[in-house]
Amino acid sequence: MPAGRHFLQIPGPSNVPDRILRAMDYPTMDHRGPAFAEVGRAALEGAKWVFGTENRVIIYPSSGTGAWEAALVNTLSPGDTVLMYETGHFATLWKKLAERLGLKPVFIEGDWRRGADPDAIAARLKEDEAHEIKAVCVVHNETSTGAVSPIAAIRRAIDAAGHPALFMVDTISGLASIDYRHDEWGVDVTVSGSQKGLMLPPGLSFNAVSEKAVAASKTAGLPKAYWAWDDMMGPNDTGYFPYTPATNLLYGLNEAIAMLREEGLENVFARHTRHGEAARAAVEAWGLEVLCARPEDRSGVLTAVMMPEGHSADRFRAIALENYDISFGNGLSKVADRVFRIGHLGDFNDLMLCGTLAGVEMALSDAGVPHRKGGVQAAMQVLGGGQSALRAAAE
Ligand SMILES: *Cc1c(COP(=O)(O)O)cnc(C)c1O
């Protein structure tokens, strides 16, 4: 093992803070015993705060993919049409999952360089006079590209079209990093996971639900067993679960929520925005291109960087790992070997970002990738300026 800490700078799983590791390092308890109710209730209530909802949040012991499936099987029936948007790799995976469940996705094609376009969604909904489309599904923070979709504007587009479809949003990598408001934005099912902005290890996933979604679940015809919201709701009311929850991850979730409350969600979002801006300043100084084409779509969670023609992103990542013990995210499917992704999310600060960007800059040299020096310097300028601006705002 190399000396010092490994830099896990992939866009999820993110670094788990020591405080959360300590909170999980505690005996697993009887999940049906009297002491558990407090743990369960704190987790279920705290999750509501993070999602910005007064309604329920269902917590599963599963990866995010499970919560994708849960959102669909609880609310839809075999053969239902769903409108999905090709923002990138994760949106494509959700669409494939929908197909395997016997749903009929209408896929609005995208170029993997921007967020979902509300006007394109509105246009498809207006064509659907018979209201065959039962749900609109959008990825909020597309982790394969670093593009953010405007969820509030998409809600307005659905309303303007006068369409009754459910609105489902995957914010697996957006939650607790960039602004998200389940109730205020009128989302019916929000899908998320533990291992990104929530700073936990992988293993928990979430469905925040609206009353409309719960009503749809009463008549939805797709088969469901493990994912059934119905079975969860009764036990959840008293802080319990119908089957064994991921007890130690719930200890961790409660600690993560405490940390987010202490920092304040607004400050957490501002920190991610600032780190995104600093990372992009570095990319620009290197003379490289950010995959996400429109500045207003660019994410505070990650930055996907395009490799100059003829240079392998995977070879660059292997060299970075070998020489500096740092992991960057790979390019997924369509952009495999063409991009690398810098994660700047979760338990992360200015100097971790500087170290990460220094790792990129040195590995670019080692890999013989043409670039200009000074990326870290450019990022430091943004970070330094940001700090004095923050201080000025506080005074
Ligand atoms: C990570 C991620 C997923 C997949 O989650 P798993 O936990 O790997 O199943 C889905 N969507 C987005 C946007 C993600 O970032």
Would you kindly provide a written description of the structure presented here, covering whatever features stand out?
The protein has 395 residues and is of the alpha/beta class. It is built from 13 helices and 14 strands. It is 43% helix and 15% strand. The strands form three sheets. It has a seven-stranded mixed beta sheet with strand order 2-10-9-8-5-3-4, sandwiched between helices. Strands 1-13-14-12-11 form a five-stranded mixed beta sheet, with helices on both faces. It has a two-stranded antiparallel ribbon with strand order 6-7. Strand 6 (141-142) and strand 7 (147-148) form a beta hairpin. The radius of gyration is 21 Å and the shape is globular. The structure holds pyridoxal-5'-phosphate. Pyridoxal-5'-phosphate binds next to helix 3. Pyridoxal-5'-phosphate binds at residues 12, 63-65, 90, 139, 143, 170, 172-173, 193, 202. One of its GO terms (biological process) is glycine biosynthetic process, by transamination of glyoxylate. Residues 38-326 form the Aminotransferase class V domain. GO terms for molecular function: alanine-glyoxylate transaminase activity; L-serine-pyruvate transaminase activity. Keywords: Pyridoxal phosphate, Pyruvate.
